[in-house]
Design a protein that fits this description.
globular; 7 strands
Length: about 625
């Protein structure tokens, strides 16, 4: 009994279960929007045809191709929170790889070859395996591919084929890759029919297979608008980064980008393409190998298709590679490849960070916590903020609308230009604020590489109502319902570390302390109080609050940076050096690196000399 168990496969799937569960567990902009749609479907009992979350576009008509994913996400999150979504992602990933395994087993019995390709494909799809509907498409593609390959090469129609009509009934409501599934099914149906009718190649259950194909097509015909949704999108959708070409993703203005995570997947994809070409050249040509070669070329036009194309083209690649190398050499090579890839996946799983894809720990990509202030203190109806924050607020504050949301492919030129004007601090926003009746603006702090800085400082009917380390919130005076936070002496755009005038120090500090009392996790208030202690040479108070803040907000490297300065001034050079190193390890920053290098040379010359290699590497 035990001898029949394939322990290598069990090891691979256990490793991948941990890997898929641990990675990419951030709630993304898209995730919030999909959950908001799911909540809307649950409440209205209707499939949405209008984007009811935005006010910045004249037309809100859109074709909902992912409402069912949104419903699944919302229900899962409501009942099981982030754990449930992570589990869902893991199951979708494992299901995809399981059916890939079943497909590879049609062509080879080499265990190391099969498991190596399972791990390789898992690594490649992990760069797209987010908490997004795309994960369901990966699974459906793998299932469709397995059914077709099994029937074509083994002349055996799996029982799973009975589910094809159901899969294609729900797929156009789950994710936009349903056309890819129909193309694969249609290709195999036509190829098998030609062989059966013209070349008289006998097929068991041929009628059943064609019936399942026809039924699958019939289920999508009434949903043709969802299947071909991309034909109705705005021409501005070409500016959406995810629809970029391979060249566009690698190069910006002719210069190679520094996004190493993008390069890893692209370089691996190019390597797979080259190997496929080699195997195709050395093998007997077939319509299938040619078809999948064309499929494998798709990411050159749309780089985001790397993951799905690799899922469906890998089986034919393995088939083409069979017998191309000496058996002993091949075995040794695949053992080495499998061991190396297993180590890469294991390290990624244990660290919850994909090797080759650095995770952003700080700052958070969403304005976490700011929605609490808005709900408690403002009567917000129309909120304007950074584009990638809109969906967070849409999901977390049900009563509001935002200027735009994740559905950029349906936007018009006027909407894009007005949004671009509003985020620019050099423009007068008054006319556009009136045009769209905006009552709340959430600007970004300067911790992001992208920003929204609507200039409201000179507008009399607007007031600064809240600041955190991430957000700067202004509200129109008529929608403020609670007035217990006075920030009139704070200027977040003051060109100094302290965001108040020194002459107002005493009263300004009271305002900041009130802000911290309201929000004990407020990083802006904590940083301002520490900087004020430093400015007044109150080193013990500064140290105490900085140490506390480092524990309270562990991802923020600024407290480590401040502790390096504090301990340097207290002549504790060992700790000053330790916190300087910690700050740069958390958030590499050349400006801070140069400052800390100079600072340690002045305050702790011996420690600076010991750290010379670190600071100059």
């Amino acid at each position: 009994m035990l001898k029949k168990i394939d322990w290598l496969v069990i090891f691979t799937f256990l490793l991948l279960a941990i890997f898929f569960f641990r990675i990419n567990n951030q709630l993304l902009q898209d995730t919030y929007w999909h959950m908001a749609v799911g909540k809307e479907v649950l409440e209205t009992k209707k499939i949405p045809t209008h984007d009811n979350f935005v006010y910045g576009s004249k037309s809100t008509n859109y074709t909902s191709t992912e409402w069912l994913s949104g419903l699944i996400f919302f229900e899962t999150y409501e009942k099981f929170h982030i754990f449930g979504l992570s589990l869902l992602k893991m199951l979708a990933g494992l299901g995809t790889i399981f059916f890939l395994y079943k497909t590879l087993a049609i062509f080879t019995k080499d265990k190391f070859k099969i498991n190596f390709f399972l791990l390789l494909v898992s690594y490649l799809i992990s760069h797209r395996l987010f908490l997004r509907p795309e994960m369901f498409s990966f699974l459906f593609l793998a299932i469709t591919n397995y059914i077709c390959f099994s029937y074509y090469y083994k002349n055996r129609l799996p029982h799973l084929a009975f589910l094809l009509p159901l899969i294609f009934l729900i797929w156009p409501n789950i994710h936009g890759f349903a056309p890819a599934g129909i193309v694969i099914l249609a290709f195999f149906a036509s190829t098998i029919t030609i062989e059966h009718k013209i070349f008289r190649k006998e097929r068991v259950n041929y009628t059943k297979f064609i019936l399942f194909f026809v039924l699958s097509c019939l289920t999508v015909v009434p949903q043709i608008d969802r299947l071909l949704f991309f034909t109705n999108t705005s021409h501005f959708s070409s500016f959406i980064p995810e629809w970029n070409s391979l060249k566009g993703e690698l190069f910006t203005n002719g210069q190679l980008q520094n996004e190493l995570s993008t390069h890893w997947t692209i370089y691996l994809y190019i390597l797979i393409l080259i190997i496929y070409l080699f195997a195709f050249y050395k093998s007997k040509k077939s319509i299938l190998s040619l078809f999948y070669f064309v499929v494998l070329l798709a990411p050159i036009k749309f780089y985001r298709l790397i993951s799905p194309t690799v899922i469906i083209a890998t089986p034919i690649l393995v088939h083409l590679l069979e017998g191309k190398f000496n058996t002993n050499i091949s075995l040794r090579l695949y053992q080495i490849f499998f061991s190396t890839t297993s180590l890469l996946i294991l390290i990624s799983a244990l660290s919850a960070q994909i090797i080759g894809k650095p995770e952003q720990i700080w700052p958070p990509t969403q304005p976490i916590g700011s929605e609490r202030f808005i709900k408690e203190n403002l009567h917000t109806k129309r909120l304007f903020t950074l584009g990638i924050w809109n969906d967070y607020y849409i999901f977390n504050i049900q009563s509001i609308k935002t200027f735009s949301d994740v559905m950029n492919e349906y936007r018009d030129r006027e909407s894009l230009l007005d949004e671009s004007s509003l985020v620019n601090p050099n423009n007068d926003p008054q006319a556009l604020l009136s045009k769209y009746n905006i009552d709340t603006v959430v600007n970004t702090q300067n911790v992001y590489r992208w920003s929204s800085s609507t200039n409201l400082g000179n507008l009399q009917n607007w007031r600064l109502v809240y600041i955190s380390e991430l957000t700067i919130i202004y509200a129109r005076k008529d929608i403020i319902k609670n007035n217990h936070l006075d920030l009139s002496l704070i200027n977040p755009y003051l060109n100094s570390d302290l965001k108040f005038q020194i002459k107002d120090r005493e009263e300004a500090i009271k305002e900041i302390e009130n802000l911290l009392n309201y929000d004990p996790q407020n990083g802006f208030a904590r940083s301002q109080l520490i900087l004020n202690y430093i400015d007044e040479n109150q080193w013990d108070e500064a140290k105490k609050l900085a140490l506390e803040s480092r524990v309270q907000i562990p991802g923020n490297s600024y407290y480590s940076f401040l502790l390096a300065i504090i301990y340097g001034n207290l002549n504790d050079c060992e700790k000053a050096s330790m916190y300087a190193t910690e700050a740069l390890n958390k958030t590499p920053d050349n400006n801070k690196k140069q400052f800390l290098e100079y600072f340690l040379q002045q305050k702790c010359p011996k420690q600076a000399e010991a750290n010379t290699q670190y600071f100059y590497d």
